[in-house]
């Protein structure tokens, strides 16, 4: 939907990429304390992560960083993950060790980690300095974007969001004898402001909303977890029908009905949408 506003630069991830699972490993805070970091830089410093195993598209190594204050917070749960869902990491998921920075853009959760550095500046990697940033609207193309890369902060917390997984756009669906249709999806909180406390669904372009049911299992997931939801809605038969969803988290964050375009299409959090449905 981002490209409906205006084309963005790079790969269009559609509704995005997300992983919701159980990670296990030592807290980064404990590792840094054991290493004896210089706490004089904690207020303004950064902790940088690097993987030097292979060249990547725009650099000779991959890396990222987060503010040191984030890494040292007890409630931020930044870990050096060794296990995923009760098993050792697989190579595809970062074996033997990767960083997990929950609530933050996945680009900072570096896989195949071979170096952690506490430093005064953010990571010098291309993907920290020249990607994963919400550039201002004035950055309308690659040339104009050059003016803003180094003065725009790197992306950290992801926004509150929801996705409609069933039905998908363009599908043909059949309603019940009462004209009802079950809609399902998932929702995510903003950064560390979880959990998601409410999901709502609309079939009249946002004029009215009904509250969806969040699964009982999802309610046990904690502040970082997604929630799975479902709602039974009344749909008029016909073509070109549309369903919208919006989430609200513990911090009161919700989705933007009119999100602002940005050059890379980052942190889009317009309403979840299933459009151009044929309803029978």
Quick structural summary:
The protein has 280 residues and is mainly β. The protein is 9% helix and 30% strand. The protein has helices at 2-5, 28-35, 68-72, 126-129, 142-145, and strands at residues 23-24, 46-51, 62-67, 79-81, 83-84, 87-88, 98-100, 115-119, 161-166, 172-173, 180-188, 196-202, 210-211, 213-214, 227-234, 238-249, 272-279.
Walk me through what this model shows.
The chain has helices at residues 2-5, 28-35, 68-72, 126-129, 142-145; strands spanning 23-24, 46-51, 62-67, 79-81, 83-84, 87-88, 98-100, 115-119, 161-166, 172-173, 180-188, 196-202, 210-211, 213-214, 227-234, 238-249, 272-279. It is mainly beta and 280 residues long. A hairpin with a 7-residue loop joins strand 12 and strand 13. It is globular and about 65 Å long. The mean pLDDT is 94.
Classification by helices and strands: mainly beta
Count of DSSP strands: 17
Number of helices: 5
* First-to-last CA distance: 25 Å
User: How much of the residues is beta strand, in percent?
Assistant: 25-35%
Q: Helical amount among residues, as a percent range?
A: under 10%
N to C succession of SSEs: HEHEEHEEEEEHHEEEEEEEEE
- The Rg value, from CA coordinates, equals 21 Å
Basic shape: globular
Mean pLDDT: 94
Largest beta sheet: strand ordering? 10-17-16-12-13
How is the biggest beta sheet arranged? 5 strands, mixed
């Amino acid at each position: 939907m981002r490209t409906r506003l205006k084309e963005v630069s790079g790969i269009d991830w559609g509704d995005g990429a997300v992983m919701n699972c159980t990670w296990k490993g030592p807290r980064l805070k404990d590792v840094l304390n054991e290493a004896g970091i210089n706490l004089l830089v904690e207020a303004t410093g950064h902790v940088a992560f690097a993987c030097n195993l292979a060249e990547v598209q725009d650099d000779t190594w991959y890396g990222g960083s987060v503010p040191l204050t984030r890494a040292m917070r007890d409630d931020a749960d930044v870990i050096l993950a060794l296990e995923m869902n009760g098993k050792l990491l697989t190579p595809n998921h970062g074996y033997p060790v990767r960083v997990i920075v929950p609530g933050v853009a996945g680009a900072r959760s570096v896989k195949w980690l071979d170096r952690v550095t506490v430093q005064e500046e953010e990571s010098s990697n291309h993907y920290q300095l020249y990607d994963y940033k919400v550039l201002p609207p004035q950055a309308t193309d690659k040339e104009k974007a050059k003016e803003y890369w180094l003065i725009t902060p790197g992306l950290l917390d992801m926004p509150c969001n929801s996705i409609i997984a069933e039905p998908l756009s363009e599908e043909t669906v059949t309603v019940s004898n009462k004209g009802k249709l079950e809609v399902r999806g998932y929702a995510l909180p903003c950064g560390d402001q979880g959990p998601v406390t409410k999901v709502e669904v609309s079939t009249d372009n946002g004029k009215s909303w009904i509250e969806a049911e969040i699964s009982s299992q999802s309610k046990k997931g904690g502040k970082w977890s997604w929630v799975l939801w479902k709602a039974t809605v009344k749909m008029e038969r016909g073509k070109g029908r549309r369903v919208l969803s919006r989430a609200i988290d513990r911090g009161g964050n919700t989705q933007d009905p009119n999100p602002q375009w940005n050059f890379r299409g980052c942190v889009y959090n317009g309403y979840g949408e299933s459009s151009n449905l044929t309803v029978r």
